[in-house]
Amino acid sequence: MTNKEIQMQRMWQYFVDATVEIIDQKGIENVTIREIATKAGYNSATIYNYFQEVSHLIFFAALKYLNKYIKELPEQMEKGDNSLDKYLLSWESFCKHSFEEPEIYYAIFLANLGEKPEELLKYYYNVYQSDLFGDVTEDIKTLIAEYNLSTRSRNALDKSVQEGFLTKETVAVINERTVLIWQGMLITILNNRRHLNAEEATNKTMQHIKEIVNNYRLAK
Asked: What does pTM read for this prediction?
């Protein structure tokens, strides 16, 4: 890594850490560029030299809150006997943690990150990956690091096709429906449309996801 890259990484870390502090103290909904700049000890213009939008800073700060999910996920998936069981267990763990902290998971997986965020965020990931994900298997890293929820879910289903539990044709349908169900429940919770605690929301969401998967599961 060049001196310039080291300096850039250091500056990113200042601003991300400042954003995390604001989330801890005031809540994610109160994060602003001005607040971040004040907390980090720089002016707002400096932040825009490193981040195009405040949503990108919130995104990376929110990733810091995935630690509980990251730690639990490998142990949960070990309970599964096959790839499809592991897929369902990964969804259950994801639902549990996302419904406990809906604002955080909305910021990571659903918030508007501006035009064509993939290239920019992929570049940021290359810098932060080791700090964020530590020593986890590639399968787990894919589930954690894939910010595009549809791709994340699809990757997990592909192994079930290889093992003969699903057909290629049904994977796309399962993927779309399960993602939409989770999105709908998260938005419902955030908008206070239904008063469900995290456990109740997880149970209802998993009931729908399991019904969808079992409907397309091949007999073996």
From this structure: 0.85
Tens-place pLDDT, residues 162-207 = 999 999 999 999 999 999 999 999 999 999 878 899 999 999 999 9
Question: How crowded is the C-beta side of 122, counted as CA atoms within 13 Å?
Answer: 6
Give the C-alpha separation, 181 to 200, whole Å: 14
Residue 146: pLDDT band by 50, 70, 90 thresholds? low
The H or E element spanning position 3 is helix 3-26
Q: Show Cβ contacts of residue 7 under 8 Å, excluding neighbours closer than 6 positions.
A: none
Amino acid at 189: I
90-102 confidence digits (pLDDT tens): 999 999 999 999 9
Assign 3-class secondary structure to 108-154: HHCCCCCCCHHHHHHHHHHHHHHHHHCCCCHHHHHHHHCCCHHHHHH
What 3-state DSSP class applies to 80? Answer: coil
HSE-up (13 A, CA, CB side) for residue 87: 27
Tally of CB atoms within 10 A around 215: 11
The domain ranges of the chain are: 3-51, 65-216
Mean pLDDT confidence for 49-55:
89
Name the CATH superfamily, with its identifier, for domain 3-51.
Homeodomain-like (1.10.10.60)
Q: Within 13 Å of residue 128, how many CA atoms lie on the same side as its CB?
A: 21
